[in-house]
Amino acid sequence: MADPREQAILKLVEEARTKADAFIVIGIMPGDRFFYSCDDRVTLPDLHGILERNVDDVCGSVSRDRARRAKERRQG
Questions:
Q1: Contact yes or no for 14/26 (Cβ under 8 A)
Q2: Beta-sheet strands, E only, within 1-76
Q3: How many beta carbons lie within 10 A of that of residue 10, not counting itself?
Q4: pLDDT tens by residue, 3-56
C-alpha cells in the first residue's frame, strides 16, 4: 500500500491539473523521484514530444526567475 502522504500529493496534483486545464503536471523530488498527473488523451509519443520541446523553456524560465530574485535581494 502506498504512503498516505504520497497519495495525498497525487490527489492534489490531479486536482491542480484538472482545475488548471493542464495536460501534464510533473513534480520532481530529491533522489530522482517524481510524481505526475497526465491527461488520458495525451499519447505516449505526444508526451515524449511535449516534454522534449518544453525542457529548455522551463529551464530558461527558472533561470530568469532566479536572476530576478537575486537582483531584488541585492537592491532590497
A1: no
A2: 24-29, 33-38
A3: 15
A4: 888 889 899 999 999 999 989 999 988 899 898 999 999 999 999 999 999 999
Rounded to two decimals, the pTM is 0.71
Backbone angles phi, psi at 22, to 5 degrees: -90, 155
Q: Return the HEC string of 6-66.
A: HHHHHHHHHHHHHHHCCCEEEEEEHHHEEEEEECCCCCHHHHHHHHHHHHHHHHHHHHHHH
Nearest in space to 37 (alpha carbons), one of 19, 21, 24, 52: 24
Neighbouring CB atoms inside 10 A of 37's CB total 19
Place of cell 529551464: 59
